Amino acid sequence: MTAESRRGISGPEPAPPVSPREIWAWAFFDFANSSYTTVIITVVYSVYFTKIVAVGHVGEQLWGWGYSASMLVIALALPFLGAAADFAGAKKRFLCVLTGVSVVFTALLYFVGPGDLWTGLLFLVLSNIGFAGGLAFYNGFLPEIARADNMGKISGYGWALGYVGGLVALLCVYPFVRGGFGEENLSSVRWAFPLTAAFFFLASLPTFILLRERAVPSRLPAGEGYGRVGWRRVFETLREIRRFRELAKFFIAFFIYGDAINTVIVFSSIFAAHVLGFTPGELILFFVVVQVTAALGAFAFGPVTDRMGAKRTIGITLVIWIGVVAAAAGVETKEAFYVVGLAAGLAIGSSQAASRALIALMTPPGKNAEFFGFFALTEKFAAIMGPLVYGTISAWTGSQRTALLSVGAFFILGFVALQFVREKEGIEAAQALRDLTGRKTHTG
């Protein structure tokens, strides 16, 4: 059965069947792009920027502002890019171009040295725009290569491979950063950035070579451009989501707690290095622990989600997150922070996997691309507020522990918002439209 027939879409020619090799090629892109989030955003460049590049400045605040700015740009641009890709049948081309942007500017971080504040921020913003923008098109392939009964499993393959990819990338750059961020080792540390870029590019090749573009190109309506079509699609999607109240309420909850998760990812290594004095080698070891437990969490909570329901599973992970943040804000030793990292890894893998599963369960047939597109838009805006709040509170109070407690408030609010989501009603609403679509198909 082809991707189009599964979604009830007819085209001029049937799409080629999806092979296992192609599914793994899709999932392998998560392996590739995790090198960027792990090395650049989480472990190495974040610390390098705040300790070396932003010397004499409030590095945490500038880092938070720069990261938030990149997510704001891609969130605003996403409707336009999505419309262009949908109409041109060019998700793969957009994915290639944006990945190329991220790879190039990640490699250029090699030339960022002490005091190169604005260059360092600019290259961060541009590399992250390429990375985050590409993810939207990568995720857009999922409804084409997966069926409703295996979408969660295939999505889980991507998450799990992503954590493995981040771990492998960390091991690759470890020889360059183990000497620390002292002046005598800066020339070595800087090689971690082009090495990450090369890893990202080479590991992406299976996706670019083997993954097929199944979308059928369409012509733009007369007198309209991609920008106008993009905005119209956003408003149409908003109207559609209002018909599915429970899914809309879940997007609100995800916006809140997803913001907190992203903030932990962005600032965890900065906290460990500045507050607890972690060396680069210790940071690498810490995130090896986190990556391993995150992969285990993504796998282990899959069956739990099936048995207990996605909403309840997410609620459990948010309780874990609240405990993690409270414990991290009070830790005094590196050993205690490693223990906190074990729980954080379990929470991040399981919460991400369960969240995507709940969206899939409450998404009506034929609306996968639109609703997952809106989810991507929500996800990007969710990445703006938390880092901005964390960086600002850290600058105002001079305490990252206080800033970390603000992240706990996001998790608590997200947990409360999740309680208003009626999972059963949301799934039934999607099923009702699925049944209606099926009857219309059978009656002609």
General description of the model:
With 444 residues, the protein is mainly α. The protein has a single domain (19-214, 227-439), classed as Growth Hormone, Chain: A. It contains 18 helices and no strands. It is globular. It starts with a helix and ends with a helix.
Descriptive key words:
mainly alpha, globular, disordered C terminus, single chain, Growth Hormone, Chain: A, 444 residues
How far is the N terminus from the C terminus? 20 Å
Average pLDDT score: 80
Specify Rg, calculated over alpha carbons: 21 Å
Q: How many helix segments? A: 18
Could you say what the CATH topology is called? Growth Hormone, Chain: A
Helix share, percent: over 70%
> Could you describe the largest sheet, including whether it forms a barrel?
none
Amount of beta strand: under 5%
Give the count of structural domains.
1
